[in-house]
Amino acid sequence: MTTQRRTTTTLACCTALVLALGATACGGPVATAGGGDKALNGQTITVAGVWSGTEQKNFQKVLDAFTEKTGAKTQFVSTGDNVSTVVGSKIEGGNAPDVVMVPQVGVLQQFAKKDWLEPLSRTTEKSVDTNYAPVWKEYGSVGGDFYGLYFKAAHKSTVWYSPDALDQAGVKPPKSYAQMLKSGQTVADSGLSAFSVAGEDGWTLTDWFENIYLSQAGPEKYDQLAAHKIKWTDPTVVQALTTLGKLFADKQLIAGGQKGALSTDFPGSVEKVFGPEPESAMVYEGDFVAGIAKDQFGKNPGTDLSFFPFPAVEGGEAPVVSGGDAAVVLKDGKNQKAAQKFLEYLASPEAAEVWAGAGGFLSPNKKVDPAAYGDDTSREIAKSLTDAGDSVRFDMSDQAPAAFGGTKGAGEWKILQDFLRDPSDPRATAGLLEDAAAKSYEG
């Protein structure tokens, strides 16, 4: 999952978080880091992750709260997108960080198989068993050992829309995928295209496919395909591509048609709905869409923009596809005791509420106080994520080897871009996906 994929924007309604007093400008609950015994005075931990910009600043508030609580000093190291390469070089150089925030299930598994990771403490494990849906522990475990604590999550089953655009077209948020396309046609008839699609960024197309596939084929098939236990030529894949292809083939529904979509990157797709000169009524992507709309175009969640859950396809269940960043402890870190204490802190509702108050954050922790989130839209999305329980499924392409699921201009990204360009042969596209998947999984 790239930094762009996770996004660097926020939904913040606050401009500051006063940790020492435990108050937020949003009027949320006290999110205090007080009450610690300073047991880690004099110790320092290094935390590495992909975050930069606003995300890094907000995570620093969590680090500062941990320092206030325990006395431990912290240092954050931004790795950029290539986490595994950077961490590997630091381990080889004898300068391994103590904690890494890992943005992909596949990378976490890679670290575990290289024997880089220390299992998490029983205290952390107990917190996850109590406060998280079991699926999150499964995604953080390898070979029966629990290595990864999912601290920050993304909800990637949200369709964002302009309330004014839907009102002018006389349509309401749809309850089914077929209804969404029908409503989109009504919107197109009113003068705007229905959807802005970020085809220039292949990862957005994988997210479209994954939501359709999870709803249409069901979670069991989704898990099998994610692990390459069934082939991409399976009839369920062809069926999902056929469903997606109907949208891609309809030039009235997509802003600029296929050619326009292929020249639109993710931020541009948000601009086409919420920018100064709207071209579309809706854009599908994760909860982070709202951050871009707010920060770049001054749109306020709940008034200027809203969302509806990605609708169920052909009688299936509405999908909940997620992503997230898991905290892991490296064996070669210099301060494992403090690192384990840090993860115990991250597993607490208290730590999550620090960032929730700052915005641009969702927690899988069911005990996080909803009032900690800065606006009703964030609260609604967070509730949707935790209410989904074990039906949540992690982004499929992030579970795959990077050569297939995470490389620009190659693998799934490139094949789905070609499918957007010409969606006439879903079966042939499935064959190309299987060829690419087989090579990457064998590698």
UniProtKB/TrEMBL annotation:
<keyword id="KW-0732">Signal</keyword>
<dbReference type="Pfam" id="PF01547">
    <property type="entry name" value="SBP_bac_1"/>
</dbReference>
<keyword id="KW-0813">Transport</keyword>
<feature type="signal peptide">
    <location>
        <begin position="1"/>
        <end position="25"/>
    </location>
</feature>
<dbReference type="InterPro" id="IPR006059">
    <property type="entry name" value="SBP"/>
</dbReference>
<protein>
    <submittedName>
        <fullName>Extracellular solute-binding protein</fullName>
    </submittedName>
</protein>
<comment type="similarity">
    <text>Belongs to the bacterial solute-binding protein 1 family.</text>
</comment>
<dbReference type="InterPro" id="IPR050490">
    <property type="entry name" value="Bact_solute-bd_prot1"/>
</dbReference>
